[in-house]
Write a structure and sequence with these properties.
The chain is of the alpha+beta class and 102 residues long. 24% of the residues lie in helices and 32% in strands. The longest helix has 24 residues. The protein starts with a strand and ends in a 15-residue tail after the last helix.
Length: 102
């Protein structure tokens, strides 16, 4: 099962900009329930940023890809395994709705 990961939001310390919570979403690509709803898991991970660390990245310098790597390091395998267990038998629709442009 292929998944699309996104970062939905970040909570940070106001004083130093260190990210303390990452709200993520993992969507099962091309798979829906019998009603046509997308199947996904979402939650949050907690972080303990250290502004004095040489690895600290200021909030303004973060990208979604960078933050996704934090999430994947912590939980990717477990979440994708749970997605496969929960949604592996879900319906792949015969038709789809949408337009080819953004």
């Amino acid at each position: 099962m292929n998944c699309t990961w996104t970062i939905e939001n970040l909570r940070r310390n106001s004083t130093d900009g260190g990210v303390i919570t990452v709200f993520w979403k993992c969507k099962a690509d091309g798979v829906t329930d019998k009603y046509g709803n997308e199947l996904f898991l979402s939650s949050a991970i907690e972080l303990a940023p250290d502004p004095s660390s040489p690895d600290f990245v200021p909030f303004e310098s973060l990208t979604e890809d960078f933050v996704l790597h934090w999430v994947w390091h912590e939980i990717r395998d477990d979440v994708e395994e749970e997605m496969a267990q929960r949604f592996g038998g879900a319906v792949i629709p015969e038709t789809a709705l949408g337009t080819p442009w953004a």
